[in-house]
Design the sequence.
């Protein structure tokens, strides 16, 4: 955790004082949103992949730990997805003149976030039975199909969205821009790992507490439990 | 010799209040500083809200575990009594 804080503090300082401003067509100063926007999208991919792995594992053999991993992945994917959807339009306002346009990458990203929101809502309000868990796990696996579509949508269908990363990072003309992005990826990897681990651990514990409650109730411990 | 000034037709009061006509090619005037700060504040707010929710969930769990422990101790005490 201290390492994550240190990397984020360095990243914010580096973006604010060292990273040069981009050209006006890219949004000028607003382009600095990029150094959090892209790593957030990458963290969303990581979380979504973990959700897929956990969901597939749960569908093959249901365990509390696998269920927790799938749910933690979906929850983190929603948070990082909203970070992308909040930061992107604010940058777009300066670069494109509008907050939102139905560009292929924007549309597919929104769709992906909505898929993970659906999983989280289903898990929160649809009960915690095996059928609900399996249904959410199936969405978790199928939802992953959209991730490569987001990534390749710019290449296949064009649109307004820049493709400096898809083009191998060649669009970042200054070494400090590349360094800021690299540190951004490192910071988000650490943060995503921390949040995923913490959420999964809490969900595993919650499952254990529920099992204990059931055993306690069966043993006649109804008062005070 | 000066060219006579050209007058663009002014919209009437009724037109101004009943119709908004988009201006194409207008320069984007939103402050980049405001956009950058808003983006960073909103992203951190989202993250902090998520961490706070996780902390609340953990706190509720630890309370529940304490309650279960107390109930078990009480049960043990009742069973130990002759």
Sequence:
């Amino acid at each position: 955790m201290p390492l994550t804080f240190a990397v984020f503090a360095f990243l914010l300082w580096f973006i604010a004082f060292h990273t040069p401003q981009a050209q006006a067509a890219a949004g000028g100063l607003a382009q600095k949103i990029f150094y959090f926007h892209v790593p957030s999208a990458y963290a969303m991919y990581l979380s979504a992949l973990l959700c897929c792995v956990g969901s597939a594992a749960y569908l093959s053999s249901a365990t509390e730990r696998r269920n927790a991993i799938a749910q933690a992945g979906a929850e983190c994917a929603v948070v990082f997805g909203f970070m992308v959807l909040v930061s992107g339009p604010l940058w777009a306002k300066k670069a494109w003149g509008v907050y939102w346009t139905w560009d292929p990458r924007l549309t597919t990203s929104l769709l992906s976030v909505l898929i993970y929101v659906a999983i989280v809502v289903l898990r929160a309000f649809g009960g915690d039975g095996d059928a609900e868990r399996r249904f959410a796990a199936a969405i978790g696996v199928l939802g992953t199909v959209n991730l490569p579509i987001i990534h390749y949508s710019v290449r296949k269908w064009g649109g307004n969205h820049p493709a400096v990363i898809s083009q191998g990072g060649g669009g970042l003309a200054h070494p400090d821009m590349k360094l800021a992005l690299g540190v951004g990826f490192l910071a988000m990897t650490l943060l995503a790992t921390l949040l995923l681990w913490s959420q999964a651990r809490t969900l595993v514990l919650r499952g254990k507490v529920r099992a204990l409650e059931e055993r306690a109730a069966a043993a006649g411990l109804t008062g005070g439990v | 010799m000066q060219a006579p000034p050209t007058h663009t037709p002014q919209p009437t009061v009724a037109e101004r209040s009943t119709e908004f006509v988009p201006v194409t090619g207008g320069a984007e005037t939103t402050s980049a500083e405001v956009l950058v700060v808003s983006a960073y504040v909103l992203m951190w707010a989202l993250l902090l809200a998520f961490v706070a929710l996780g902390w609340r969930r953990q706190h509720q769990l630890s309370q529940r575990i304490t309650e279960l422990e107390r109930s078990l101790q009480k049960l043990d005490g009742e069973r130990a009594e002759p």
